[in-house]
Fold this sequence. Notes:
Blueprint: E1 2-8, H1 13-21, E2 30-36, E3 41-47, E4 60-61, E5 67-75, H2 78-87, H3 98-109, E6 119-127, E7 132-137, E8 146-150, E9 153-157, H4 160-163, H5 175-184, E10 198-199, E11 204-209, E12 216-219, H6 234-251, E13 259-262, H7 267-282, E14 292-298, H8 306-316, E15 319-325, H9 327-340, H10 350-361, E16 366-368, H11 373-377, H12 381-395, H13 398-408, H14 420-430, H15 438-443, H16 448-455, H17 461-464, H18 466-474, H19 480-506, E17 511-513, H20 519-527, E18 534-535, E19 538-539, H21 541-546, H22 553-556, H23 567-572, H24 583-593, H25 600-615
Parallel strand pairs: 13-14, 13-16, 14-15, 16-17
Antiparallel strand pairs: 1-3, 1-9, 2-3, 4-5, 5-6, 6-7, 7-11, 8-9, 8-10, 11-12, 18-19
Amino acid sequence: MCGIAGFVGAGDSEVLHRMTRRLTHRGPDAEGYFEKAGEGIFLGHRRLSIIDLAGGAQPMCTADGQTVIVFNGEIYNHAELRQELQAKGRGFATDHSDTEVLLQAWREWGVAMLDRLNGMWAFAIFDAVERRIFLARDRFGKKPLYYFHRKGTFAFASELTALLEHPLAPRNRSEIARVKFLAHALIPAPHSAIEGIYKLPAAHHLTLPLGGGSPRLTRYWRYTLEPEESGKSESALASELLEILARATKRRLVADVPLGVFLSGGLDSSTIAALATKDRRAGGTLALQGLQTFTIGFHEASFDESMYAQQVAEFLQTNHHVDTLSLDAALEVIPRIFDVLDEPQGDGSLLPTWLLCRFARRHVTVALSGDGGDELFAGYDPFRALRMAGLYSKMVPRPLHKALRLLAARLPVSHANISLDFKIKRTLRGLDHPSRLWNPVWLGALEPSELARLTDSRFSIEEIYSEAIEAWESCASADPVDRTLQFYTEIYLQDGILAKADRASMMNSLEVRSPFLDIEVADFARRLPHHYKLRGKTTKYLLKRAVEELLPHDIIYRSKKGFGTPVGSWLRSGRIAPEANSPMLREKLAAHLAGKTDERLYLWCEHVWQQWQLRNPS
């Protein structure tokens, strides 16, 4: 796991070194540079050593010096690909570096190599023979990559703040990105917080011809839902899923450094911990010490799941570690997070995730997580609301709906995690709008009417929610469950869950791996009919069936809490608050402090944006 940066065009060694060293937290172990100043080609790399500690230094060149790569990520099937490439006559200088596998795969297969990779990646290749720069990002977007093309110079970096070290980088904040941020509590790709700087979207590659020309962006893969009835029994499908997940977990247990597992006590992380424990015990590697697992708890009872994590840890006999997040601890670490945060992130669980990563890094360099399970197997509460939402939209007249919203607004405000009043108010808010907007409005900080007021209607609803609408309408299935799955995998997973996990982990020089996002698991999930994911009110139905012999029944079937954060009560305490610098912000802050309405997400988003602005002036 590393940080990469580089540019083609204007600039010099000093610029490259500034950009690269801004990524030191991503790669504290080493730095490296490749420069062809006469051609204006500069590549930089910061390394967190995980695989082939002795032989994996970057930038890495082929023996003839004609191909150079800087790479951030892990390729889990690199050993198999190495064997295949060796059989084709490709020679290797390293013992087991996945970076060199990428180099030789590029020479053998070119762009088609992306179809063969199983892992997470963001990399840039300089090809002197083909006279081009090639960038690519993994299928789900686990590893970030930003770029700009301006005044004849093309530059890229793992983080926005590193890119801003280039003197030609755009500086103006993006107004549409800010609106999208308040609409989604995240900034969807390809947008970034800076106008003219873009995220390379997940499952895309970019080619820049040297000697002139514009970057060419191409999608090479899409999570396309193609449900099929296989004719297999339910128990056979459950067994197949478990076998696939076991293989995916096994692939991610390979490392030349200490490794552990995040354990929340929920289904997904407990499944990964169980499979990792089973695999390691089968190999005899846990004879002296159990698998290390890590949990963050909360003093606020409705947010705390540490007792469930402890139950799973005792059941699996792991070497378990627990830390607790309080308001005082949050106040201490928030400025440290904002100092390094490269782009606004609206999810308040960035705080406990950051603490979890810092806590784990004291013991391990790699951690496995359960990220992706909810998105692939319909694990979130909104999936359960879809059937009712469809019936409600057809049967309830608009005047009655408005009256019900007014009545719901009078429910007492609770700042507990996923409280009943929160569910009712959020559900009704989404039902103000067409079904294609349900998901982003349910999850967003502001609803469309508030966004229109905030921007004086300068942006249309279609523009603000364009990515969410495209994900909903691109789904081949008309079923709202499938369309919601498409939204979560393309929007929420990429720019919410995975962006949060990447930022929190790399701020602490920790690599996080996600077995649920293995390509074999993803292919199984996208072909699985949704009635195996959501059955009645049971979410992740087949996954729960698959792990019944691995985990306690009450862990598998307990109510989902999610990794929430008590930001609402923290804000009401007055010890965390955005500056009330607009009429809407003043109104909502006053209402929240008075306990009249729950504005936690909007106020937190405003606070994050303000703190980011202070540290990144235009």
